[in-house]
UniProtKB/TrEMBL annotation:
CDD domains: PTH. One of its GO terms (molecular function) is peptidyl-tRNA hydrolase activity. It comes from Microbacterium terregens. PANTHER family: PEPTIDYL-TRNA HYDROLASE. Keywords: Cytoplasm, Hydrolase, RNA-binding, tRNA-binding. Hydrolyzes ribosome-free peptidyl-tRNAs (with 1 or more amino acids incorporated), which drop off the ribosome during protein synthesis, or as a result of ribosome stalling. Catalyzes the release of premature peptidyl moieties from peptidyl-tRNA molecules trapped in stalled 50S ribosomal subunits, and thus maintains levels of free tRNAs and 50S ribosomes. TRNA binds at residues 17, 69, 71, 117. This is Peptidyl-tRNA hydrolase.
Amino acid sequence: MADTWLIVGLGNPGPRYELTRHNVGQLVVDELAARRGETFRAHKANARVVETWLQPGGAKLVLAKPNTFMNVSGGPVAGLARFYGVDPERVIVVHDEIDIPFDAIKLKAGGGHGGHNGVRDVAKALDSTAFSRVRVGIGRPTGRQEPADWVLEPFGASERKNLPILLADAADAVEQLVGEGLLAAQQKHHAPRV
């Protein structure tokens, strides 16, 4: 189906990880579902999905959250892509990005995984790097904290105040990427905030 998009929020399963930095991709997909009044249901590809539309009569959106841990997200993503007949170019992966400051979003299509194990596994399972990424900035830890520990912690108090805005902006970026294309979405979301 040429006008179907698979939008995957990466993260880890279970309440322990739900509101951690590593799960910001799933929080963005939750925002997209909430905007449409939809709830996730189990899918045989070991994921939870919502089937909806960008707008009535527009592109079909399959919003997905793998039930696997971040580093083995590829199997569910590839299974969903096969099930819905979606080419890698119509897959959007939403994920946390430690090398982007908190409250910033960057979009790209193709390219490397940048050390992100979830993105690496998706690329391997799809046998392609042609999918788009909405990279949601979580920033780096201060001091000597290990990045691996940092991403598994809940957002700090000041971050939590701004988190709804960040999630809304990232959801807007996904919608614009589907509706208007990568360049238009980049031009809007890569600009400095005023």
